[in-house]
């Protein structure tokens, strides 16, 4: 089919051509970038944290009264929790992955550094920490009982040994083992020796330090200390498979009974912590899906409305063509081709807008570069959407009888 007559006809309806083209371009830009953001959020929400989430929960204790002693309470509580039927292990801890609260610090390789080599979340645990978290040791060893100390509010010194994650080890010592290496959690203190590497442990903060690399959310360090700040203690409990819910109730009741000089905080499962931690990402995903569906629907309706208007406006011309021998198929192809031209022009502009929007997101929100596959997919979807939207009006145009050409206006 000749394209020149179609272009000539479109030039007589420049306003409609521009409006539909802009609509298609904007839809392509927003849909492609939105799909990319959604895919990143879904991938983030589905990644493994490094902790046994299905069988693990946390429980807290807040003491009151002058006689309450946090050190004694921590020792008694962990002994009590480990003795409960169905408990696989328990440890005191200051935080958990995805909880959006905790302690972090920068790690230096030398005393002279003014800028840290990498940031790290700090998990304060005892010798049961690795087993209680359900984490996997990749290299070296974990802490022993005689290495565990209490960290007072006034403490400034860090312990001589630490355990870090593989992601942090790769950041600090690329292409070499981190075992036995020394780092500085405090450049004014003594160096800290890495005695073990844990396969994976997510930091408490969602989206934390993303500018440091794709694995920055797994820059974590285990510290052999129990935190004795104020009168609050937090414990992580891993249960035998399938017994988490019953152990949660038993643990809360046992802790309430063992010490009446404190308030026992409601147990929270790691699955609940994950759901609460990612609720913002989940909401964004739902909103963006709604935006995509709405944009595609509005674009399709715009194409249908434009095509229907042009069919009505050209009814007598279509009848004349039919009278001169044009088949229904040729009329159908004309309108389908016309829509293809309009959509192609809109998509050409849309490519520029898509990467313009992506560049703006990269500059202002630390977004990643949009892969070509999303652009290609968006072009295919909108091209198919345009052809599907115009098919109804084009079919109606193909059914115009030749006799229409003989009717007076």
From TrEMBL:
Keywords: Cell membrane, Membrane, Transmembrane, Transmembrane helix. It holds the Pfam family MacB_PCD. One of its GO terms (molecular function) is transmembrane transporter activity. The chain crosses the membrane at residues 15-38, 286-311, 340-360, 372-392. Residues 291-402 form the ABC3 transporter permease C-terminal domain. InterPro entries: ABC3_permease_C, MacB_PCD, Macrolide_Exporter_MacB. It is found in: Cell membrane. One of its GO terms (cellular component) is plasma membrane. The keyword rRNA-binding does not apply. It is a multi-pass membrane protein. Residues 36-252 form the MacB-like periplasmic core domain. Its main location: membrane. Belongs to the ABC-4 integral membrane protein family. This is Putative ABC transport system permease protein. It comes from Tahibacter aquaticus. The lineage of its organism: Bacteria, Pseudomonadati, Pseudomonadota, Gammaproteobacteria, Lysobacterales.
């Amino acid at each position: 089919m000749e394209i020149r007559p179609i272009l000539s006809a479109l030039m007589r309806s420049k306003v409609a051509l521009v409006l539909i083209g802009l609509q298609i371009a904007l839809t392509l830009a927003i849909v492609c970038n939105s799909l990319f953001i959604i895919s990143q959020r879904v991938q983030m929400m589905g990644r493994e944290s490094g902790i046994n989430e299905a069988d693990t929960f946390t429980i807290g204790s807040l003491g009151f009264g002058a006689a309450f002693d946090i050190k004694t309470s921590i020792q008694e509580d962990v002994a009590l929790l480990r003795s409960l039927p169905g408990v696989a292990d328990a440890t005191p801890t200051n935080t958990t992955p995805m909880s959006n609260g905790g302690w972090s610090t920068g790690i230096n390789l030398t005393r002279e550094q003014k800028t840290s080599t990498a940031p790290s979340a700090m998990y304060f645990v005892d010798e049961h920490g690795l087993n209680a978290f359900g984490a996997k040791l990749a290299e070296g060893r974990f802490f022993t009982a005689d290495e565990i100390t209490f960290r007072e509010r006034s403490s400034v010194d860090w312990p001589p040994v630490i355990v870090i994650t593989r992601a942090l080890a790769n950041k600090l010592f690329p292409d070499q083992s981190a075992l036995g290496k020394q780092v500085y959690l405090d450049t004014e203190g003594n160096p800290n020796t890495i005695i073990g590497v844990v396969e994976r442990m997510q930091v408490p903060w969602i989206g934390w330090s993303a500018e440091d690399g794709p694995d920055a959310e797994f820059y974590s360090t285990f510290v052999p200390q129990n935190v004795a700040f104020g009168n609050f203690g937090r414990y992580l409990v891993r249960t035998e498979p399938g017994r988490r819910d019953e152990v949660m109730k038993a643990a809360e009741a046992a802790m309430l009974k063992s010490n009446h000089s404190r308030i026992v905080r409601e147990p929270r499962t790691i699955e609940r912590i994950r759901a609460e931690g990612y609720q913002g990402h989940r909401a964004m995903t739902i909103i963006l899906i709604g935006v995509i569906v709405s944009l595609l629907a509005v674009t399709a309706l715009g194409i249908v409305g434009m095509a229907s208007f042009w069919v009505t406006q050209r009814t007598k011309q279509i009848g004349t063509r039919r009278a001169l021998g044009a088949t229904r198929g040729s009329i159908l192809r004309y309108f389908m081709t016309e829509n293809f031209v309009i959509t192609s022009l809109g998509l050409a502009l849309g490519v520029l807008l898509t990467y313009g929007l992506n560049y703006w997101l990269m500059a202002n929100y630390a977004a990643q570069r949009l892969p070509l596959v999303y652009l290609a997919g968006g072009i295919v979807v909108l091209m198919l959407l345009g052809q599907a939207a115009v098919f109804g009006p084009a079919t109606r145009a193909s059914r115009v009888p030749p006799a229409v050409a003989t009717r007076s206006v």
